[in-house]
Amino acid sequence: MRFDINISPLDLDLTLGCGQTFRWRKAPDGFWEGPLGNQFIRLGQKGSIVHIEASPEGREVEGLVRTHLRADDDVRGIQKALAEDPVMAAGISELKGLRIVKIDEWECLISFILATYANIPRITKMIETLSTRYGERIIAGVNSFPSQDRLRRAPLSELAKCGFGYRAKFIHEACKVLDDDALSEFQKMSYEDLRDELKQLPGVGDKVADCVSLFGFGRLDAFPIDVWIERALGRLYHRKGSYNSLREFAQERFGPYAGYAQEYLYYNERLRAPGGTCMFSEK
DNA sequence: GCCCAGGAGTGTG
DNA sequence: CACACTCATGGG
Predict the structure, then answer these.
(1) Cα distance between residue A110 and residue A189, in whole Å
(2) Which nt is closest to the CA of A170, judged by C1'?
(3) pLDDT score of A275
(4) How confident is the model at residue A277 (pLDDT cuts 50, 70, 90)?
(5) For A203 and C9, how far is CA from C1' in angstroms?
(6) Strand C positions within 7 A of protein Cβ atoms
């Protein structure tokens, strides 16, 4: 099955290639491919037209892709609002097609627990290992992200051999602490309550809670602060301080779309780092 | 070998 | 509140 949808503005390379999500790969033919739910999806782009291929053939593919790429976000409006800040305006200008993605809540939580203090190539590899061992086969060589139930049944001794380091026991314990419908209950909460709940999970601190709030639960006001954002805020806004003081600065300055602001800052900071660029241009 | 990574947890002043 | 230290490991 293949068909086209229209999403604008959109740049798949920017959106899928640099650290929001870890399972998309750029194929030699220029298509981005990876698992979404229990289907293997290929996405190509010409202008604002996105070509979609899916196997096995599912009925809700268009919905899956539109949700993942947050097709209903008024990105132009968000950029216009953020661009009232001249510093941000300059940062946005080369990133018009960068969109926040919407990741499955469970996949996002585990992914960003694994992402703590690791670089993107390694994170990608860890998630690949987890899916290969515990996910279900979609097509040859591609497995779905493992379910909560399946991961809960994985003994720690086994997870400890996956190359996750100290993260193994975090995800092992997080699985056991959460019951099956906990995350759907989380979805009903305010952002503040959601953060507090997430932070009670092992391996989830301020930064992971904000990443999961933003990319997993779709809270566009979340503003995750990692080392890159910390540098960007220092360099561009001369701000330094605790996580919460920086977060409050961002909330006040960028308001309900702080998450998009964060992504523009993140990308700019990475692009200007020596050799530090994104997946689609690394090999 | 060295440095760093989309940090968190715990303890101390 | 602020630091300081440890955690386990691989990619560049």
Answers:
(1) 20
(2) B8
(3) 63
(4) low
(5) 16
(6) 1-2, 7-12
